Amino acid sequence: MVPEGGQKPDSGEKSVKLVVVALILRGREVLICQRRPDQPMALKWEFPGGKMEPGESAEEALARELDEELGIDAKIGTRITRMRHTYRSGSSVDLQFFAVHEFSGEITNRIFNDLRWCELTALPSYDFLAADRNLVRDLAAGKLL
Fold first, then answer.
1. Domains of the chain by start residue, with CATH
2. What is the pLDDT of residue 133?
3. I want to staple 34 with a disulfide (CB 3.0 to 4.6 A). Which of 11, 78, 114, 123 is the partner?
């Protein structure tokens, strides 16, 4: 019997992780974050955010993640894009990217190897996670913002 979610238990299929991501903008710059050497996909660059918890809206999850990772109280703006990426391992992520133009508090690096403000046009010069590369290209080309 297949449960209402549609997937058979132990079918070998990997579940899709629901991930929310912030494009924290300051003029023509965006905040980028580098993973620590001890994390999976070590030292790759990404945008802040994380997994949604059951019962959270995307905006609630992103506000929580930005508080946990950066110590800020962010006003989550409009959703810029949504995409799905499947890694070679077979695991998939469903990514929702939101603009953040306003926040209170001082940005504090709580979990990353490095943080920096990056000009949108310079984003492709960083080694981003595979899931972010199409977005990085579009942002640098001025297609989304």
1. 16-140 (3.90.79.10)
2. 96
3. 114
